[in-house]
Queue: 4 jobs
Job 1
Amino acid sequence: MRLSGENLSALEDINYKVDSGKFVCVIGPSGCGKSTLLKVLAGLQNPSAGRVLLDGEPLQKSDRNKAMVFQSASLLPWRTVLRNVTYGLEIQGFSVRDAEKIADGFIDLVGLSGFEKSYPRELSGGMQQRVNLARALVTNPKLLLMDEPFANLDPQLRNFMQAEVERIWEQTRQTTLFITHLIDEAIFLADEIVVLTARPGRIKKIVAVDLPRPRKVEIRKAPEFHALQDMLSELMDDEFQKTIYQQSQRKNQ
Amino acid sequence: MSPRYNKILVFLLTLIFLGSWELLSRKGVLPTFFFSSPLRILKSAQWLFEHGLWNDIRVSLIEFVLGMSLAVTVGVLLGWGLGWYITLGAVVEPFITVMNAAPRVALLPLLILWLGIGIESKIAAVFLGAFFPIVFTVMKGVRTMENSLLELARSFGANDLQLFTTIAIPSTVPYIMAGLQIAVGRGLVGVVIGELLAAQAGIGYMMARASASFQTDKMFVGLILLAGFGYFLTEVIKMIEKKFESWRV
């Protein structure tokens, strides 16, 4: 798959297969096209070359087998928490009543029971991201896409939400592609980490994470965790240098 | 200062204003022929209410309500359409801009020629006043729709109709309210000027007759009625607008 515009390729030669039931993190330097990759997978953008297959079938724009958790919560301010969670189901043709029945369990799962009737403006940033997550999970997608969903949260809350994602994932085992630029976030969550190069983003390396599940916060202190962290830091540092170099080149042109 | 304190202050100032007006006109400083006086206005209002003012109010209200309803319906629908279909909007926008900038009062003699001196010409006058601000704000509302919400809908595989009904329509509600706020004032101007020019009934018509026979008191009654009605409507819309303000993304 390749994606380019105005002589500037964002992504090149991304050839990768996500195994069903796996949690995959994609990391790469900023501007390497991580978010673009996710937009293509979500059907929000067409690749200029190549294709995306889901279960062997080409992914359609209107394909309802994928759901996305956005970086900004992107909640509908005129809908309650419950109706925000049912939104995807309603788009996919469920009646409001059926959708609400299905949504109930997921609101529970993300820890928002009691807030069904609240409006987004009444929620904290972390809670808004929980709604964002529930809204995607509730459609039971074959592929769950997450675009740096905790990038706007403060570090403590982010760690907490990562543990929440881990807890929820243990229950749903949804095939997930999670984009991040944080190495520790990727290690904590992933079965497999795809490291992208600087722009145009290519796959630099695929790193398996064999830490036992379910993972608790303490796992961050394990030597295996640190070993992975060091290895990934080195890979990322290379690409970071390249990004800086590219930027200075572009300025001089 | 607390809002309550402010209210008391406003009340007191009004009393002082009315009191000194009454006093000055009794002392002959303000000739009643030109400036009337609060008590004379009150008496004149009483007489008017007993002699057909209700009918004038009814006619003006009907003209206003019908004209506004038409303006809101057409304005909102057209605004949605022009905002949604970008090319269509770009083509039509200059015409709307010209019409909005033109003094539409100048059209009134034509409207009366076309539609007569009955309520039809006044409904048209209200419509012309109220329609443009609504179209404009709604069109702007659709165009500035939050991209992240559109992406959200698309990521679930929403089709265009679903995008429009679940995202575009609700996100323009605050804009509709903002347009309405301006439209109410313009619509009221439409009623009054239309009736002043040529009519068979209405508050403006009553004022025109009073003016022709130098009955200052009656003119003030009409003025106060119109001001009160305008104030009331603005406040109501402000309240509704506040309720929908949180719908802005």
Job 2
Amino acid sequence: MTAARPVLDAPGTDGAAASSPRLIPYVPVLLFAPCFIIYAVLFIWPQLSLLATSFVDGNQWSVAHYQRFLGDGYYWELLGRTLFLGVITTVITLVLGLPVAYLLARMQSRWAGFLLVITTFPLLVSAVVRSFGWMVLFFRDGLVSKLVVALGLASPPFQLMYTMSGVVIALAQVLLPLMVLTLYGVFRSIDRDLELAAMSLGARPSLALWLVTLRLARGGILAGSLLVFSLAISTFATPSLVGGARAHVMSTAIYEQTIELLNWPFAAALSSILLVFVLVLALVYGRVLEGRGQTEARP
Amino acid sequence: MTIDLKSPFGALLLALTIIAFCYLLLPILVIVVAPLGSTGYLSFPPQSLTLKWYQAALNDTRYVGSFLTSLKVATITAIVSTVIGILAAHGLTRYEFRGRKFIEALFLSPLILPTLVLAVGLSIFFSRTGLLTGTARLAASHVIVCTPYVIRVSLPVFQRFDRTLEEAAQNLGATPLQSFLMVLLPVVRPAIIAGAVMAFITSFDEVVLALFLAEPSAPTLPVTIYSAVQLGFDPSVAAVSGLLVLLTMALMVIYHIFGAVRD
């Protein structure tokens, strides 16, 4: 940093010329260096060795692990169940997140800030702790399991523990704050006068929302959905604690292959497959955000 | 409010919002309240009230020990990721050069990577290279997860920073280092604090990397809770989790009061 340019020792020199920062290429390099070295060693290298490991069988290169995945109906079902979990979780967080984010964004009282903090608070509590809370409610004597039986949705010896329904309920709660925060930002950026204009021209409030606000917010809605979906298919703590071995998804299957079965190459192949899905979603997400930036930039 | 909450449509929105808030807060309420029950198993709502499980949690060396491990890992992680993140954010906003967009995308990319995939990769990597030992492995791994948060929070603030302030300082005789430390840093301080707090909380709460990389003899608190929960429902585990929730709540209140005073 200090090497970038000499100290200004002559106060009389022309201010503009003397003070314009000279772009010496090694200064940004020095600023990045610590971050870049740590990333190269602990991020790029391990991820490349993960990919390499997935192509090793015994002592030679092979695609055996991928063949095993593709050739076994169990893993197709696993992948399908994982994607299904992602879809359902996204739908639930949208249904609850849209009204919450909309009301928070349009509220004109000092409560709005407080409610936003309440919404973010669960994000600060470890997913392990939040899942544990659901487990207390999901066991046979738990409040929610009893409620399900009382509503006649299931017959008595019933518990939500170790079921996909339980995983969905818990996971949607874990990811809801992220959806609300994304949508809140989008709704705040949409001028409420547009809604008022639509209503003054005779649209019912629900129609005005549908025609104006949701149309304008669709980029943000897509972005929030991709974010939640991508986390829902890859997160580990909640499916592992609530679903356990009886409701396997990709992440819990990967964990089982490593710590329990010690089949690291197959775990690496499963991880790479999951990674492909997440990366594709991230690329779409990037495109969506870019597109939004361009439309907003237009006058 | 553009929508009348007393109209049927407004009432529907309001009802969904109330349901959403109950849904968001229910498991957290359960984990704080359930260990107050005097029964040997967890139930919600609790039968009769007692503080004995909370006391048991505070007296259990297992929990206290792993709390201290988590504190240590999160502190190291927060310091390292804040320092390297701030330097990188400064470099990204101060200088225009080829490949800047690429470097920025690279530095933010761990945000989209599933932690589990990162953990599998790092386990393979550490067992092959034998690099680092003990708690340092976990802290180093957490740095990869936490640095992107620091960069993401500080980038917009660094971008908004008025460069003429630095130039003015340098015209008055400050070295670039002095103007960085005495002009830039004080202005962007709120972003630095927010980034450091986020890095600390993310590391403290993180369980997947910790499951793979923490030393078996010194697990972090989330790992201890994760393992204990799977073995059975000892109310003192819930009490530890409840304490964690209350602590987070207290820190958040302090942060907001502190932030409000400064603004």
Job 3
Amino acid sequence: MDVDSSSPSKYITLVSSDGFEFVVMRKAAFISPAIKSMLDPKSQFQEARTGRCVFEEINGIVLEKVVEYFHYWYKYQDKEDVPDMEIPVELCLELLTAADYLGLDSKERLLPSR
Amino acid sequence: MANCEVCEKRFTVTPYSRAGPNGGLLCPKCSKEAAKDEDANKKKKKRPNAIPGGSRSRRGVHSRILDGTYQTGAKPLMTLCIETLAKNIDLADDLGDLPPPLIDRISRLLSKRRLLDGRTLDLFLQPDAEDLKVYDAARLSSDDYIRIFQRLSQLKTLKLRNAIQFRDNVMSYLISRHITLNSIYLHGANLLTEDCWNGFLKAKGQDLKTLQVYFTDRHFSDNVVKSLNENCPSLARLKICHNQQVSDEGIKHIAHLENLEHLSLRLVKRTSTDAYVEVIKSIGSHLRTFSIQEVEDVDDRLLDALHDNCTSLTKLRITASQVVTDAGFVRLFKDWKNKPLNFIDLEQCRHVDAKNPRENAHQVGLCSDGFQAIMNHSGKALRHLNVHACRHISREAFEEAFSIDKEYPELLNLEISFCEEVTDLIVGCIFRSCPNLKKLNVFGCMKVKHVRVPRGKILVGLPNAMGMVIEGKDD
């Protein structure tokens, strides 16, 4: 996937440690400051050129949940009274570590930038 | 007699026998099952209708607004995970090596749900931990506290709320261990005796930088405060709240704590201005926090002392004084050498007279001029401002302070409840002048009626049933 820096693709690919690939909307994945900085065109990271992020620490099952969260967040970003997303109990700790790694905590950063 | 339609057993037919799905009859056992299924179906059908848009969601939203946890959009993934974890904490054996801020958030949530007991406490007792913060220790026993000191030999910061069973034997155990605490925060430990406090400060006071005690009843006395001077030379933060024993005499001893930077007092005994003035004159120049609550008798002399001595304050709180005057506040904030403050709380500094509540000939309390002086001095840096019940701030003063050419970029929280003159226009002006405002409280502002609240901001306490109306579309 070769991406021209002037018009980056609407989608990016996230790859888990065990090789599963998830294609996600760029806008949705950008709530994670970590992914956002990886894909910053100014950064000259390989990820920024290819639109492909490999996470060696996150396995497929957890990454799938993370991707689900990205879309859940995107869908509800401006809504009030949002239903909670189900978190499987057995994934809880791993997901927590992943969320910490991806920086999915601060409320300020999650607010839509308008 | 007939054969059952489902299980084909023979049974006695009675008037209560149920009809099966194909028109035959069912035996008592099978009818019971059928009845169960029907009930389950009914429940399933009812539930989904009840939740969306119903009163529960509206109530839930309001409850979260008052809790301060309200936000638009989805919850952060971290919050979702922590909530799930707290719900299922009985399944967890070990939290693994999560970073400390996360552990702290888990501890907070567990405490909120009152789930922190002897068993769940173990999750937080990592042998190399330097901090332990338990926000609700009400279910812990003396033995649990002792276990904390057995396991955590590196402990530096200890915070325990509702630590009722933190008794003398726990404290003596702590004294006997090689633990050097930098910071101790004890809330509700009202069974600790004065002797024990003295013993602790004598043994462990050398390294203590922070001492915060809440609800210690009669045991944390003037004498204990006096001994701080000797025993805790490096004390930088002192907070004594809801204390029934410390009086003017104790406050005067605080004046000798030369390294003190943060001082917060909320004493039950009546205190006088002189004691506070003495403190400010002695150590005011390097105080960064000065907070005194429920001080009915404190007058303008304290404000003048603050003006003359303090240069590094960032947080100032004086509440419920019925004697300070507007002129005093003007003198304090006008040409004050102190840099702009981040936090000002002057709740209930107002004139009280049941007969003529609106007359205030001597301009007692925070009034218009004082308010403007505050905004002129500290407006640029203010993050939290509380003028709750300062009823004599006029409409003109608010309009002037939040006029179109004024901007307060740092202001996050503004509390103007029970300021009678606040109108729709003023609330609108506030939203315009404070672009980063998160929350505005307007309880008891009866002239506020129909305000449109910009997205991302919260207006609490409107005097109507509608609540706040957010500007803009949903999508």
Job 4
Amino acid sequence: MKQTDPIYKEMILYLYKNPLNKKQLADFDCSHKEYNPSCGDEIEIMIKFDESGKIIDIGHQGEGCAVSQAAVSLLTEEVKGKSKEEVMSLTEEEMINMLEIPISHTRSKCALLGLKTILFCFDRPSNKTN
Amino acid sequence: MLLNLKECKICFPIFQKHPNLVYLDSASSTQTPQTVLDAVNDYYINYRANIHRGLYDLSGTATQKYEEARKTVGKFISASSKEIVFTSGTTHGLNLLASGVQNTLQPGDNIVLTEMEHHANLIPWQKIAKKKGMELRFIPMNREQRTGNSYELGVSDIENLIDEKTKIVSFTLVSNTLGTINPAEEIIARAKKIGAITIVDAAQAMAHMPIDVKILDCDFMVFSGHKMYGPTGIGVLYGKKERLEALEPFFYGGDMVRSVSYEDATWADVPEKFEGGTPNIAGAIGLGAAVEFIQSTGFDKIQNHETQLTNKLINQLNSIPDARIIGLNSEEKRIGVVSFLLKDIHPHDVAEILNRDQVCVRTGHHCTMPLMKKLGLPGTVRASVGIYNTEDDIDKLFASLARVMAVFK
């Protein structure tokens, strides 16, 4: 392995072992589960909005590789306090930049699975409480 | 002919282009030997023309070579050439069969598959079952007390699952995920007792073990060229002649008709009835060359070589405390398709690091999502061997796996 290759740098491995916001929400406004059929990853996102429409809590569940788990950790932190519209304006490039590592074509689906799930989630209001 | 399979790599130009390549993904697609490339090129360079049509010599040569390939493939599995339909691959063959038999099926009938099926031998039957109001049944894996799953089909369940309402029994001869060789004789014998149509998905078996459809006595068998050293986009549907004759065509168009009026049409004889449109001529000729490549090497040598590699793979995995084989733990009743997990490291992360060492393995659910769910796994890492692999390849795999464990320590 090329020693200079940074894909498995400390931050990614740290977030893989200690994911952020990996929790089940007791009360949420929308949820969605999305799959990456090429590698078997699955991510479920639950979102709670405040009265002004900003995200006040977000949780994710599921299984994934180091890249997808690190990405969803960073993304769920990033979207807190943001409105639906603000999140929807996030680009794929911005998502990949959050990881601060080069993402190959084959891994871009891993890096983007969390973002894809959140965007689908907005269309799936559930008004459920667990 | 090769006297020594250790030198087999030289027959495959890709290993000259990539001398450090460790290709352990033959279950997904095999590499192509020079003889197959030459046969395909020969068609395009020396006698390129459509088949069954032109009166000119080039078309005659093309037709002759295409039909020779059909004979070669037929002989390879002990079938007559009339029983060999060229398809685009196993998926095409299974969709053709599911579509072709549907008019004989009634609500309340059932279709029996196994828990190990590739999506290609599952989804076409789901569609037909829904459309016809039929039940899908699955021959389960044996439960084993220690690990939960035995990774083998429960032969004792076959008797009950296949009953007088069973019309189709379609199963994989070798699991593409687990490597298990399934008990084809028992399944087919039971299906024949009640007169169900038997279909064998042999995609994963063809390059690794001799197959004789007369001994298997199945009604249909399907396989792909690209998993047996042939080109992509070519495959075979074998069917007993009377079974093929009773089957509805799948594609309608040129070359599959006897006579056509503005109002109606009648079908050509088998196998042409199923080869509407210009087929993959170069692919069929390449597949013929691939079969000759396998025959010239010989299955005794292939099996001996691949069993040695499989043993080495299994033994070395067993020597790593953090590795877990998802499949049978010896070379018995299995081929060299070995799924495994390394600690709790996600298979995708394993493969990413292996790729940096030019070690090619497959990861994910291997187009068997229900099986993965049943086993409670997000996916596996799968190393699979071919004729060109060496012990050195296995050593390089394990050197790279050691680096994976170092990164995820």
